[in-house]
TrEMBL record:
It comes from Christiangramia antarctica. Its main location: membrane. Keywords: Cell outer membrane, Membrane, Signal, TonB box, Transmembrane, Transmembrane beta strand, Transport. The lineage of its organism: Bacteria, Pseudomonadati, Bacteroidota, Flavobacteriia, Flavobacteriales. It comes from the Bacteria. This is SusC/RagA family TonB-linked outer membrane protein.
Length: 997
């Protein structure tokens, strides 16, 4: 009997195995959208099993399943679909599109929200918008992609700062940069440069690790960040794994760079001609020729200038062709319990300015694990190291761009090949050969997080984030470098800033009676930042081969400082929708900051917004034309805390008196100093037509910044020069328009377009006592735009005698002219901020070929050439001149804007609108052309994707501005909207490849 039972069991097992193998099979198919277009990258997951796959570029998939299994097909922007496996071996799926991506998920503070039900103004960018743009800065990759967001590099240096303005400038005395939040961690974003020009702290981030960027533009969206949201909030989310087999991605590109524009300068013949004429006009024929020939002898440094032995192109020496090399590798995947994402990146950039280079490495690991149905946790961790070879700031004689002031008669090198030390101004080539300035930035960013779900509708999140920004700067100036009077000088500094943040919050979400959708978020956050700085300078080195401080014979200076600040915050947000069409959101944040006065350290920042999805009403629901229509409005208050850590305190500092130590007051106290308050109202309309083939939004906003932080002068008897106070009112108001179109949607051809344009009016409403504040070429005046240009008005040239003329501009309104610039009154003649900004992006796909490009445009801004009084001064001094100075006045009756050439004559060189120009431009910001090899050619070698591509940055600029670049401004603090020997933007052309396997 026992043997029979054994035999039956064996037979049953054999039949079961045979049955199981008989039921296992391979299912294939194609996933398309409603227009029969293939969808690449769709997740195909077997429910309740640890396996899945993705569709390829043509929407095809293949997976081993058993009959009865359930396949789930999901794709961002489309509704998910689940299908049971039957007897068929082919399952083709059509996914329906969400309402024109209006159902896409956007990241907001401490959570996410559907774009469709969002009552705030949030611009969302995905990894597709920022990848494959060969620039070191992630900010530059999003230029032109978001309405009302202006992004401009300071100049063409590899480490140069990037100016981001969201709906204009919200502050005068405090910072104007937005708050950056990466995976819930507020980022350190302080410039720590010590050579006079700023660096961009976000250079440490790599675009390959970013999944999305959400820009919170209105106060309702940003108010949950309270005291730090006045300039907008940029939320960066890094990539994560998914429930699918491991996938690998490799991207490599190499490109060459050059300046976007070169200027024409006088060659040797033209220089001799113009300056001989200038000397004759000043001293007379014989004396003038004799004098200037002596100058030419000096400039030529022993070479035969009369036969033009030397004709140096100094611009060609200062600017060069550079290169950009990018390599990234990532791996992602996971199962239903654990997901992971690993990435590494390398960037090598040689700048367009001689001696300027950058090298960066990045590594990231993101891991998430679900322990059970109630608890999940994870970790994000990244490291980067950025090494920058830097040059001097724009205002330094030894910076390469100031070489354009050298006359073409001067040789750049001596006969032995060494740089020529006998030039009109210090030869930057000596600085390049005998000196260096190196900056190394190391950054560690990390976050650990946990989520515990008490009930289906109640969960608790606890996050701990850490940001360590550590920077070393080392420089050495050799004994043969310009301005070096000792046997070498070395400088070394280090700064370490660490910020940690602890966030803890509850989220309750529930749908009642299928019509009331409610979510409540409430929690607290603590953020602590500590900074430590120290530097030392030493001189007298035994030889230039020893270049570190320990070899200095004498330590001449040193300093050190420590500072800290903290924020303690409580926040809450409620979102509610009725019938999925009537929307409401209320939020509040209570912030306390150590930076402000002890009496006013806490502030409350409320916001409210509402929306109405009109297209859900009965009278529009069945419209064949209108697909989506939402009206929304919001009001909120945010703050600006971007001031020094101890600005409200009365400070004392150590001093030395007769070599005895002591202390002295160095800062006046103001216990009432508090944050700037920004109150913003926004009204928006979102729309979609023809099944959302046409969609977009229109917004109108008013943003008022009250309690502006100013440094107010104090009487000398107080013992202090100034005090920091809350005084002043600033207003920005404007409109934004976004239009998205799907122009063509065919099986083998798609074409989509995004167009956005925004207008912003900026006005100073109130100043202390109504008084003007003049700074250099700009002014703050009630009723005028911020930092308006305040200049003498240039009136051209007197055609009778070649004198430069200026408008007197008397209060009576007369337009009489004078040759004496001291008689001309300064008037407002322009502004440094654009009235209009726009972006225009197109993406086309045709049978494996992809083509995309983005144009950006700015209108209404002006730029002042601070170097114009030297560069374009009709031969006033010996600086080489821009070629347009050859159009000078020479005889009575000449009509020109260039006065007569007069050496030392000051004819037209006064600071005036002569050197002010409109900076309007349209720029082809980036262009990409790629080709993906069909699957049938690559699957045999185990690849999922093989794509080659070309990318171009700043390939075309249309402008009437005749300087180097309408976006490049000084990095040496000459004022807003002022350029001063500033490097032009970079034009880059790269070839690259993507490989997925």
């Amino acid at each position: 009997m026992k043997k029979k039972l054994q035999l039956i069991c064996v037979l049953l097992f054999t039949m079961t195995v045979h049955f199981g193998y008989a039921q296992s099979k391979t299912v294939t198919g194609t996933v398309t959208d409603e227009n029969s277009l293939p969808l690449p990258g769709v997740n195909v997951i077997v429910q309740n099993a640890n396996r899945g796959t993705q569709t390829d570029f043509d929407g095809n998939y293949s997976i081993d399943v058993a009959q009865g299994d359930v396949l789930t097909f999901s794709y961002v922007g489309f509704t998910s679909q689940s299908i049971s496996v039957g007897p068929d071996d082919i399952i083709n799926v059509t996914l329906g599109e969400d309402a024109a991506q209006l159902d896409e998920v956007v990241v907001v503070g401490y959570g996410t929200q559907s774009k469709r039900t969002l009552t705030d103004n949030v611009a969302k960018l995905t990894s597709e918008d920022i990848e494959e743009v060969p620039v070191p800065s992630i900010q530059s990759t999003i230029a032109g992609k978001a309405a009302g967001v202006q992004i401009a590099p300071t100049n063409g240096k590899v480490e140069g700062g990037v100016n981001i303005r969201i709906r204009g400038i919200a502050s005068i005395g405090a910072g104007s940069e937005p708050l950056y939040v990466l995976d819930g961690v507020p980022l350190i974003n302080s410039n720590e440069s010590n050579n006079g020009s700023p660096t961009n702290p976000l250079l440490t981030l790599s675009a390959n690790e970013i999944a999305s960027i959400d820009i919170l533009k209105d106060a309702s969206a940003a108010a949950v960040y309270g005291s730090r949201g006045a300039n907008g909030v940029v939320i960066i989310t890094t990539k994560s794994g998914a429930n699918r087999p491991a996938t690998f991605s490799l991207n490599y590109s190499y490109g060459v760079s050059e300046p976007t524009n070169l200027r024409d300068w006088l060659n040797a013949d033209e220089y001799v001609e113009l300056f001989t004429e200038a000397a004759v006009n000043t001293f007379g024929q014989d004396e003038g020729v004799e004098y200037i020939n002596g100058i030419f002898d000096f400039l030529a440094d022993g070479t035969d200038w009369q036969n033009r032995e030397i004709d140096t192109d100094w611009q060609d020496l200062a600017l060069q062709n550079g290169h950009v090399q990018d390599a990234t590798f990532s791996m992602s995947g996971g199962n239903e319990k654990t997901t992971y994402f690993f990435s590494g990146a390398f960037n090598d950039t040689e700048g367009i300015v001689t001696g300027n280079e950058l090298e960066r490495i990045n590594a990231r690991v993101n891991v998430g694990h679900t322990f059970n149905e109630k608890f999940k946790a994870g970790m994000n961790l990244s490291f980067s190291r950025t090494n920058i070879d830097r040059i001097a700031n724009d205002n330094a004689f030894v910076t390469p761009l100031q070489a354009i002031a050298q006359p073409a008669l001067s040789p750049a090198y001596l006969e032995n090949g060494d740089p020529n030390p006998n030039t009109l101004y210090p030869n930057f080539l000596l600085q390049d050969k005998h000196s260096f300035y190196n900056t190394v930035i190391k950054r560690v960013l990390g976050r650990v997080f946990g989520e515990y779900r008490f009930l289906d509708n109640l969960k608790f999140n606890s996050d701990f984030g850490y940001d360590l920004y550590y920077q070393n700067e080392d420089s050495y100036t050799g004994r043969l470098a310009p301005f070096q009077s000792t046997n070498g000088e070395a400088y070394a500094s280090s700064v370490g800033t660490e910020s940690y943040v602890s966030s803890n919050y509850f989220t309750f979400s529930e749908v009642f009676n299928d019509i009331h959708d409610l979510e409540i978020v409430a929690g607290m956050e603590y953020n602590q930042s500590n900074r430590r700085f120290q530097d030392v300078t030493g001189i007298q080195f035994p030889t230039d081969d020893f270049q570190t401080i320990d070899s200095a014979a004498e330590i001449t200076s040193g300093s050190g400082a420590e500072s800290a600040n903290s924020f303690l915050s409580y926040f809450a947000r409620l979102t509610y929708s009725l019938y999925d069409k009537y929307l409401l959101k209320v939020s509040v944040r209570r912030d306390g900051s150590s930076r402000f006065g002890e009496d006013v350290r806490y502030g409350t920042f409320p916001a409210i917004s509402a929306g109405w999805i009109i297209s859900e009403e009965e009278f529009l629901r069945n419209s064949d034309v209108l697909s989506f229509l939402k009206l929304r409005a919001s009001y909120g208050e945010t703050g600006n805390a971007n001031i020094g850590d101890y600005a409200a305190l009365g400070l004392f500092g150590g001093i030395s008196y007769n070599q005895r130590p002591g202390i002295a007051p160095i800062q006046a106290a103001n216990p009432q100093l508090t944050w700037e308050s920004v109150k913003q109202t926004d009204i928006g309309l979102e729309y979609g037509f023809l099944n959302n083939r046409i969609s977009g939004e229109i917004d109108y906003y008013i943003k008022r910044s009250d309690g502006l932080i100013f440094s107010q002068p104090l009487p000398g008897t107080s013992g202090q020069a100034n005090i920091t106070k809350n005084i002043g009112l600033l207003e920005n108001k404007g409109i934004e328009f976004v239009l998205n179109t799907k122009n063509i949607q065919k099986e083998n051809f798609t074409w989509s377009t995004n167009f956005n344009i925004a207008k912003n009016n900026n006005e100073v409403k109130e100043l202390p006592n109504g008084d003007d504040v003049v700074s250099g070429q700009t002014i703050l005046r009630e009723g005028e735009s911020l930092s308006a240009f305040y200049l003498r008005e240039y009136a051209g040239v007197d055609p009778d005698n070649g004198d430069a003329l200026y408008y007197i501009n008397e209060e009576g309104g007369g337009r009489e002219t004078t040759t004496d610039p001291n008689e001309a009154n300064r008037v407002i003649l322009g502004q440094p901020y654009a009235d209009w900004i726009a972006g225009f992006t197109n993406n086309l796909y045709y049978k494996g070929v992809d083509f995309g490009f983005t144009f950006t445009g700015n209108w209404g801004a002006s730029i002042y050439n601070g170097g114009g009084i030297y560069q374009s001064a009709n031969a006033d001094y010996f600086d080489n001149q821009s070629a347009d100075q050859l159009d000078r006045w020479q005889q009575p009756g000449d009509i020109t804007n260039v006065p007569q050439a007069r050496l030392f004559g000051g004819n037209g060189t006064a600071t005036s609108s002569r050197y002010l120009q409109e900076a309007d431009f349209i720029r082809l910001r980036n262009l990409t052309l790629g080709y993906t090899i069909p699957d049938r050619f690559i699957q045999e070698v185990g690849l999922d994707k093989f794509r080659i591509y070309f990318t171009g940055i700043n390939l075309l600029t249309i402008t009437d501005y005749d300087g180097y670049d309408p976006e490049s401004t000084s990095d040496a603090g000459q004022g807003v909207g002022v350029t001063f020997y500033s490097a032009p933007a970079v034009q880059t052309m790269s070839l690259g490849l993507n490989i997925n396997f």
